[in-house]
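ugh ok so i messed up the first submission bc i forgot one of the chains. this is the corrected input, ALL of the components this time, i swear. 384 residues overall. if the numbers dont match what u have on ur side tell me asap before i send this to the collaborators (the ones from the other lab, u know who)
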Amino acid sequence: MHELSVCEALLSQVRATAGTNHATSVGRITVRLGPLSGVEPDLLSQAFSIARNGPLTSDASLHIETQPIRIRCRECGNENEALANRLLCAACNGFRVDLISGDELLLAQVELRGVARPPNSPTERKENSDHV
Amino acid sequence: MCETCGCSIPDHNHPTPADEHTVEVLTGLMDANDHAAGHNREHFNRTGTLVINLMSSPGSGKTQLLERTAQAMKDRVTMAVIEGDLETENDARRLREQGIRAHQIATGSACHLDAHLVHKALHDFPLEIDGQTTDILFIENVGNLVCPAAFDLGQHVNVVLLSTTEGDDKPAKYPVMFRAADLVVISKADLLPYMDGFKVERAEQSLRGLGVETPTLNTAAGREPDIGAWIAWLEQQLESHRQHHGQAASAA
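and heres the new structure output, hopefully the right one now
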């Protein structure tokens, strides 16, 4: 069960964001998770209920947005959704495919409380880019 | 349900307080680990060491394969091993008995190695001693087909062992781990005649179902060892690693 390690990494990023923006506490935390990230949403939620006890996050809630697995066939170009252990092209049954989505493990949003003006993210990021 | 007060009125919304803001972050949850892994990789590239992360379920023969590898290669290739286990120095001791350097990380209750643990180990276990560098470093991860897959250690190659005493459908059961593999080693292949439930073709088919072209090879590291294909693969990895990083060094 490595979800506790992942959760601790999540909370340290959340606390850094809260700290940079001088927030007094954190509300809803949104995470994007793909089935091929190796992290189980239910286990992450359980780990979160233990790990959140600490500065700034003791009242925080975790919202997990599960992402679908999508693949693109390198042979015929077809795109389709797929199961974690059946990543085959739905058109030609080929296994030479690229993963378009499904392995995400992202901290997407943090709701900050006690912030007077619109906050800044602690990390440099490109506008409108959600690709990491 | 209203998320603010918890009442059951479906459309009940509280106005957002003026001092509450949502910030977009969009950083990977593994960023801290991946950053440390990047540092490890830079270090490995400086010492010219090919680093192989060896993963499998417990008991599939990782340590025995490394013992046989040491016997076959240690005279011409400088090898070292970092061992990850929850407890004991047993595996590191077994490898030292084969005449190669080995360092044990006891993870306590942690089910995987991470980049920080490897970084810490490298402080106690230098790859360059008296001007002599390490050609190949094997990191034998904690026996576990789930958690180690999520943690980059800074390795150049991931090798996953699948032993013939396990089910040949393991890739379908543990897709994240087997998708991370650059090579799948079918270990204990000398037992194939006795293992009616394991067919190499079915294991390969299960692996292809994950949408990967990962190669496989068979090894036997027991009483009658046959690890020729594995040694040939290692030699070829070492050669291409030297070419790639030799060129990178001269270009810099």
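quick check: The radius of gyration of chain B is 22 Å. that seems consistent at least. Strands of chain B lie at 20-28, 50-55, 79-85, 101-106, 136-140, 157-163, 183-187, 216-218.
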